[in-house]
Amino acid sequence: MPRCNKCGKKGLFLKIEGDTGLCLACNEDFAREGKTLTQKIIEAKNKATTEKDPKEIIRFCQDIEDHGNKLIALHQAYHLEPSHELQDLVKNYQKMRELAEK
Amino acid sequence: MSETGRYLGVNMEKIKKVMDLVIPLADYPHIPYWGTLKEAIVQLNVAYETGHHTILVFDEAYKLVGMLLQQDILRGLEPEFAQHYEEGVPIAWDNLFKSGSEARLSRPIKEFMSGVTAKLDAEDSILKASHIMLKNNASLLPVMDGDKLIGVIRMGDLFHEITNAVLSL
Fold first, then answer.
1. Is the ipTM of this complex over 0.85?
2. Which neighbouring-strand residues pair with B120?
3. How far is B35 from chain A (nearest CA, A)?
4. Residue A6, domain member (yes or no)
5. What residues of B are in the A interface, CB distance below 8 Å?
6. pTM of this prediction?
7. Do A30 and B60 touch (CB under 8 A)?
8. What domains, with CATH codes, occur in chain B?
9. Is some CB atom of chain B closer than 8 A to the CB atom of A97?
């Protein structure tokens, strides 16, 4: 019987998203919160790439780390595996911030 | 010498692998699939100075879902009736951008982006990569190391490596 990985709801006619194993309501909640965080990460990432001022670069790198870690935590809360792209992005910008701080 | 290498008369041991030409994802501008055409154009104009002509498109889980190429953007800017030019519909090309350009600029890029049609393995030879790119009519493809996405490879870099190897025979 289909069962949602997040809320545990189950039912013969319950629709479960194939990619996530979540029911439609939980999937929508994840997508809504994920969109907000992804938007913030991408804005900070694109600014960090073009910024010249080291202080601003550190700030944008920190934003990427913070929002990236929140998105990873969101995945974990919904019992989902964070993408390699996301994990690498957080690691790379953490390294970049540490280098810029030296 | 491998079969492909023998065919081209190239010593494959001297030829690089895909992993040698991988560009990290972070080097490219990123955009979410719900971003607008206008936002994509702004990003691409910034990236143009660094030599990148593509934007990588991500979903709400920060997973790569596609790419936005220059031709995708130009296709998105074209009014729909422009597609009927070949059928004999007269088009006032000079006034093309005036009609409804604001509405077109606010459309989401998911309507125009190119999906990921194929993936390469980091261990693949650049000749195999070139073959897969040509077969899929792609100018940029994601590179996997096992099940992990490690970056992308560009047709321009493959062209440079392969043609240099052929000329040095």
1. yes
2. B143
3. 9
4. no
5. 24-27, 29-32, 34, 43, 46, 58-64, 147-150
6. 0.85
7. yes
8. 1-22+122-169 (3.10.580.10), 29-116 (3.10.580.10)
9. no
